[in-house]
Here is the input.
Amino acid sequence: MSPEESLAEVRGQIDAACAQAGRAPGSVNLLAVSKLQPAEAVRRLYAAGQRHFGENYAQELRDKAAALADLPGLVWHAIGPLQANKAKYVAKLAAYFHALDRVEIAAELSRRRAGEPLRCFVEVNVAGESSKSGVAPEAVEPLAEKVRALPNLALVGLMAMPPLEAEAEASRPHFRAVASLARRLGLAELSLGSTHDFAVAIEEGATWVRVGTALFGSRP
Ligand SMILES: *Cc1c(COP(=O)(O)O)cnc(C)c1O
Here is the structure.
């Protein structure tokens, strides 16, 4: 499939999941995860109408943003865990950060940010996996309070990446728990679901789905 066809297919699946869940089409935003894909692949999807792109690695974000600086309206999202010494790239180039899990990083991002606040999601480690980033569910509220006090960040929602299971259904209880926590904290946005489970995420309230493989093919 061409990137254009993949994009149409994924958009169709998003619309179908919205219909299934009784949600308005357009209530779910598609974030194209372009990590490890060449800038030319981003350019092609942009030409097909895609505007939001997600990168995991701060230096890759820096390089790709420079290579694609001629594309008006392209919006960058940083979605991977961040080290303090790389925060400057995210603060400068991204509109959204999906993987906030430490107050030190939040403070550094706020300190480096100029202009519009950086929209942030706190990443929740839903299954208590030691190998994964994100904060435990009970630590989300105290972190959220500290983030809300920072001038140049806007806390918009929660993000999670459940353990990869063969069955997409296995993600449902995790998505549901994160949606419930977000409601309790008054957060409107939910960054949930990737290629294998985004339809389930939409049924559980995702407002952003982060899709890589289904759009670009497998990563090199
Ligand atoms: C790579 C990645 C994705 C995309 O995963 P696919 O399975 O390729 O859709 C989504 N979210 C995060 C945080 C990622 O690192």
About this structure: The longest strand covers residues 153-160. The CA atoms of residues 7 and 215 lie 6 Å apart. Residues 3-216 form a domain with the TIM Barrel fold (CATH 3.20.20.10).
